[in-house]
Amino acid sequence: MQKIKKKQKFLDILSQKTKTRFLLKKKSEKEIPKRKNSPLFNHVPEIVIQRLPIYIRILTKIQKQGKLQISSNLLGELSGISPGIIRKDLNYFGRFGKQGSGYQVIELKDTLKTILGLDGTWNVGVIGLGKLGDAIASYTGFTNAGFRIVALFDTDEKLHGKKISRITIQSLDELKRSVKTRNIKIAIISTPSNQSQDVANRLIDSGVKCILNYTQSSLKVPKEIILKHVDPISTLQSMAFHLKNYHLNK
Amino acid sequence: MQKIKKKQKFLDILSQKTKTRFLLKKKSEKEIPKRKNSPLFNHVPEIVIQRLPIYIRILTKIQKQGKLQISSNLLGELSGISPGIIRKDLNYFGRFGKQGSGYQVIELKDTLKTILGLDGTWNVGVIGLGKLGDAIASYTGFTNAGFRIVALFDTDEKLHGKKISRITIQSLDELKRSVKTRNIKIAIISTPSNQSQDVANRLIDSGVKCILNYTQSSLKVPKEIILKHVDPISTLQSMAFHLKNYHLNK
DNA sequence: TAGATTGTTAATCGATTAACAATC
DNA sequence: TAGATTGTTAATCGATTAACAATC
């Protein structure tokens, strides 16, 4: 009951074409006994969600090359992910492929974007406009990916009023108001490390739901807040292990 | 036989104190039958390696607070990783704890650093000095983490000769020579996306073993090259899924 | 129809958790 | 000694892989 409701809700966001196919599936399912452990839209593993952007990126590339269809095999080759995993991942959300020919490139790309919530644009705020924040705010890659930086904040008064990519840097006093008026749900923190927890608290207080932390400090946030850490230092450090142990000692 | 050799090799890098304790362990093991699946230094799962930097960061923090000992329980609370996992992770490399009191903060931190190859300093090159590369090259956080940026490269002639944090930007023609003379094993690519594969090829040709890719394109490299991708776009995109599905629909 | 490829199951692999004897 | 905490095992959980019937 609950499951069917969720499924329906999900279907509403998919294209009419996909929807039709899905409904056919449901119909035919009435004849066969209900599968146990059938993947449904609830409880999609995080690792699956994290692979969807990779598929989107490859599909976009393939689309530019003019290909209309792609098999899980080719998609696997281009992404380094096994074809079996790809087919399983996609089937958490529906039956998008066609036996014999594979997946429609454009349709699959658009469907995955819709699933991830990238059919529209998310407004993003950036807090901390040192060199890193400046680089983030100047970065053009967000637009095609479904994000638009619409507000910039810094504690440094000297920066207030200055513009980066036509967005004016504001005081953090403006945070709450700006988050509300610009409907900002996602924020990027690129302040010095010692300010990050403070900034995170203020962001959450202002109504931000999703934080991407570019600082070196790990943050404590309520469990309903979506938080990820861009942590190149840790990445380099784990790479050093392999360098030391599997490269230099050979 | 092979195992013991590897074990011994590993021990050489650890402190005398730890070494002694480990040898005692080996001695006492002679009496009891050899355990199956005993964790050894080969085949440490990647996920374990990736957690070690987190432990180091917390131990550093704790050390600054003057604490001399820490239990897996507290370490777990501070890191969000379960105490059982932490104990298991550490035991891939030796027995560093003491029943009843836990782990010596400084000793454990230093040991983990040695294990990861962070007891010395790795020279790092940065290729591509737009705003992002500038931010990376200006970033002071690398030093304490075991890395030192010692060379900068860009294709743009106008940048050649300019300095960032006292390092002169060079032409990519200097790459091979600089990598050799400065003993650069690790490189960070922060060029525009369309140049990244080309730069990666040249880096590998120059003798770089380890690449941190900050661009949007995924790179193809030989399997012996250690490669990781800093990919905030994909991170944001997977966060958008949770935002859409678990936040806004409530 | 024949060939190709999906969707899906069962088997396998690997990581986490629970629990507790060993021991400081 | 009593209390605390590790090191380590077995049980559990979850993800990947292998394989193939279904079907375009």
Tally of separate domains of chain A: 2
- End-to-end distance of chain A: 59 Å
- CATH topology value of the largest domain in chain A: Rossmann fold
The sequence of SSEs of chain A as H and E is HHHEHHEEHEHHEEEHEHEEH
In the predicted model, the low-confidence regions of chain A spanning at least 5 consecutive residues are: 1-40
Instruction: Please report which band the strand proportion of chain A falls in: under 5%, 5-15%, 15-25%, 25-35%, 35-45% or over 45%.
Output: 15-25%
Structural class of chain A comes to alpha/beta
Outline of chain A, from the CA principal axes?
globular
Tell me the strand order in the biggest sheet of chain A: 6-7-5-4-8-9-10
Largest interface: A-B, 58 and 57 residues
Annotation, overall tally of beta strands of chain A: 10
CATH superfamily of the largest domain in chain A: NAD(P)-binding Rossmann-like Domain
CATH architecture assignment name of the largest domain in chain A? 3-Layer(aba) Sandwich
- Tell me, rounded to a whole number, the average pLDDT of chain A: 86
Task: Please estimate the helix content of chain A.
Answer: 40-55%
- In the CATH scheme, the class of the largest domain in chain A would be Alpha Beta
**How many DSSP helices of chain A?**
11
